[in-house]
Amino acid sequence: MKTVPFTFELAGPDFVPSTYDNHIQRRLSAMKGQYLDQAAYAAMLAEGDPLLYEVYELQRPTVAGELLHGISIVHPGLVGDEYNMTKGHFHEVLETGEIYYCLKGRGFMVMETPEGETAVEPLFPGRVLYVLPRWAHRSVNASLDEDLVTFFVYPGNAGHDYGTIEKQGFRKLVVAQDGEPAIVDNPRWGQP
Amino acid sequence: MKTVPFTFELAGPDFVPSTYDNHIQRRLSAMKGQYLDQAAYAAMLAEGDPLLYEVYELQRPTVAGELLHGISIVHPGLVGDEYNMTKGHFHEVLETGEIYYCLKGRGFMVMETPEGETAVEPLFPGRVLYVLPRWAHRSVNASLDEDLVTFFVYPGNAGHDYGTIEKQGFRKLVVAQDGEPAIVDNPRWGQP
Known about the structure:
Two copies of one chain form a homodimer.
Chain A: E1 6-9, E2 22-27, H1 38-47, E3 51-58, E4 67-74, E5 78-79, E6 82-83, E7 98-104, E8 107-112, E9 118-123, E10 127-131, E11 136-141, E12 148-155, H2 163-168, E13 172-177, E14 180-185
Antiparallel strand pairs in A: 2-3, 3-4, 4-12, 5-6, 7-10, 7-12, 8-9, 8-11, 13-14
């Protein structure tokens, strides 16, 4: 791991970092149980296992004081009426925040606290979003022809709790209604 | 202070955040003892007190887990042969890093550790710089006609130690030589 300050470049059109340490690819099969329309999900999966999103990470020690950072790219598409999205997670250390800076595309950050507060914030190029400590967060690409690209920064000790969202989902969904994104309640929230 | 996730926009040409909590303005008089050519500094100050740089901050609790963030704008200019620059600082909690994302301009981040390691990294739009924990850092605008604008993120508990740099300076300077930026040793380093 690097022991001196380092740099990399983020350039359009794709914004893949000029150097990185990890490249994570999440396919449809990784999203079992997350989409509302489970029949559409199963039918899509029977046809193949498309790539939904990618994350490029710079490696740092996972301790407080360090800042983990990288690029998230959610590709466009729908599963049923629901836009492509990330798994979403709480931080394992709940009292840690995260910064997102949107570089490309149109989308939403869907967020909620363990106590049930919800927030859904639009993302577009040049917009900074501060996800407060305690808020679970999921990126949703609300375009059907362009990637949603964000640069993210979070504390080195934050960790990821994916399990809570895998079990209960998010309280809010972003779906296509008459070709436009709409934020709706998740009728399956909290179901196993 | 905000209790739900919040957003703001960074748009050219100036990249002042669409909302912010603090606006810091640093003038020449705040840089006493920092520039190599102290006669040039004194002569400039006798003529006025120009604005050298500005910082726009979003307020968050100064605790670990939060991320302090904002925009730094270093205006173009010279003091003697030395380019306009920020005061520069160590973090009070030395084991905390900082992320910079350059939005506009041309410049350098001048860095060093308490043990005497040095690094000077070019900044230009689209470039991300990770300042490792332990590294003091100063932004230098190496253009004479354009602002240097960076977006920064650092841990909420980091704090600022300006005093060490005020006393000893940085080991490296960025000066104009034949109209081009050059990195040179600071002959006054460590002098009171």
